[in-house]
Amino acid sequence: MAAIRDITEDDWRLLRAIRLRALRDAPHAFTSDYGYEAGHDERRWRELLRSNLWLLAFEDGMAAPPVGVIAATQQTPPPEGEAFLSSLWVDPTHRRRGIARRLLQAAADRVAARGAEAVSLWVLDGNEAAHRLYAAVGFVHTGERQLAPGSSTLHERRMRRSMRLAQWAGRSGGQAPRRACV
Q1: Based on the structure, what is the number of domains in the chain?
Q2: Per-residue pLDDT tens digits for 50-98
Q3: Are 140 and 161 in contact (CB under 8 A)?
Q4: Helices (H), the chain
Q5: C or N terminus of the chain, fewer CB within 10 Å?
Q6: pLDDT, tens digit, 9 for 90 and up, residues 28-40
């Protein structure tokens, strides 16, 4: 089972390595690109780590390279009490092992502990695997759609998840608590 770990700015090399792997593997899934982020210097990577919560998944202990990543930020401008998730990626050789779900849950747990009432994210149109994953863990489409940042043709849709669902998933296998009949 993958271990999920928060990282700090001193882990900037780990973030740089996995983020560049993600951009190389799935350029269609992100609004950034490999060339742009490969040009970031140490100072920029450290800034990213200071301004966002980043989690990494490790399959074979912390000494091995990470196999998954997710970021949690405050949306600009954030809806009150809502955190924003981004940059989810799992190495292709480690997919279908529940790592993406564990990263999503860990990020949701951490932002809930900081007071977030909901989490949201943007999913590129056409990324059906991501749409299915997010729906399976309780995200629903909000009806909002926009051009992806930096694109004049590519659209993305917003999905949102109540933190109550995040708490239910951790407590009872993803099901809402049962109410007593009165």
Answers
A1: 1
A2: 988 999 999 876 667 899 999 998 555 556 778 889 999 999 999 999 9
A3: yes
A4: 12-25, 34-38, 42-51, 99-113, 128-136, 163-172
A5: C
A6: 888 788 999 999 9
Domain region containing 153? 3-172
In a domain, 179, yes or no: no
H or E segment to which residue 88 belongs: strand 82-90
Q: What is the pTM of this model?
A: 0.83
Give residue for tokens 């997710």.
Answer: 70
Q: Which residue type, as a one-letter code, is found at position 67?
A: V
Q: Cα 92 vs. chain centroid, distance in angstroms?
A: 16
- Give the closest residue to 73 by CA, choosing from 53, 45, 88: 53
Decide if 86 is inside a domain.
yes
40, with CB counted inside 10 A (0-12, 13-18, 19+), is middle
Q: Measured on CA atoms in the order 11, 93, 129, 5, is the torsion positive or negative?
A: negative
Residue 35 CB contacts under 8 Å (≥ 6 apart), including other chains: none
Q: Measure Cα distances from 180 to 6, 9, 53, 169, 177 in Å.
A: 38, 47, 38, 19, 10
Beta bridge mates, 6: 55
